[in-house]
Amino acid sequence: MFDQYFDVFLADTEEGKEEHFKLRYKVYCEEMGFEDKEKFPNEQEKDHWDDHSVHFIIRHKDSGQWVGAMRLVIQQDGKLPFSELSEVDRSIVGSRPGVEISRVCLVQDIRRRVIDSNKTSSGAPSPLLNRGHLTRSLVWGLFRAASLYCEQYDYEDSYTLCTKAFARIVSREGFKVDQIGGVCNHRGERFPFKFEVSDFLANSLWDNDYKVGYKLFSEIEHENYIGLEQVA
Prior knowledge:
The protein is α+β, with helices and mostly antiparallel strands. It is 32% helix and 22% strand. It has a single domain, classed as 3-Layer(aba) Sandwich (Aminopeptidase), CATH 3.40.630.
């Protein structure tokens, strides 16, 4: 179902990164109020970790809307964002190449399961849009893309800072996650968790969906260029 309705793109161009930052601004500044709008006059939410990150965005195929985002922060000198917020065992972080899944966000229309085009291109209702698992499906799509990227570039461990409730959802899906530190107050109670990329990719969730993994944003730019050539 995910592959039928959504695409994940790696923002491998400046335009792609701008789309990613603008979506984060929309969610974190305008919709949720987690970040101060005044700090981002160009309406692109970012911080110093973005210079050491790769960025993903999700597009709804039928409407063309950008509906979700996530970044992968690449470990720098054994440090990742969560280590600045929570006390962790330093021997756990930095012993192997690792990344942190961070800034996972979905636009309000998706969180409410409403987007501009609620029908497929054939005119038939899109069943995925009305199901309670929509949000989780998009998160799994992002996590799948992240894990495939990690596998390609030999990052063995992945970390994330999340609620225990979300960690339970991940565990119920059959993923092995380990809490590696204490609670911190970051937009509510959050805990650091770790999972192994190889274990994550071995999950049966990927057997029938999420096959595409991710595409490159530059592919969109290339398609647009070819389209302009054909019109000319």
